[in-house]
Amino acid sequence: MTAPGAFERGTDGPRVILVGVDGSPTSLRAAAYAAGLARRQRSRLVAVHVTEAAPPMAGWVPAAQAVVREAAAEVAAELRREILSAAEQLGIEVDYRTLHGDPVAEISRIADALPADAVLVGASEQAGHRVIGSVAVRLVRMGHWPVTVVP
């Protein structure tokens, strides 16, 4: 039995829903699904965009890392505008966060800190992820929270 007021997963629907977004079609579908779920359940919605470090080969070209960082910042700003605009249309509030690092590490860190009752992500569209594991598969394997993978 849980003490009164203590956090308990699985009761009365999700209170905090975390969705990972990266601008891909599947992540935008996951965001739309999460927004609808948050609206219906009256849950807090947290959207997380994680920019990864510049690819290793970017160091071989002068000023490439600056270009990669600038492009990542533009993507993050556009996603922020898009998600906040959609949330306003739906009449829900969204806590949008942009982080830097490994997507799985950052999403799991935020999900644990909130604590999130549900994590939603889009399915990977990259063929190589079938071998090494996508963000979605890695989050599911962690097993800390229910993870919904949206196709």
TrEMBL record:
InterPro entries: Rossmann-like_a/b/a_fold, Universal_stress_UspA, UspA. It comes from the Bacteria. CDD domains: USP-like. Gene3D superfamilies: HUPs. Pfam families: Usp. Residues 15-151 form the UspA domain. Belongs to the universal stress protein A family. This is Universal stress protein. It comes from Modestobacter italicus (strain DSM 44449 / CECT 9708 / BC 501).
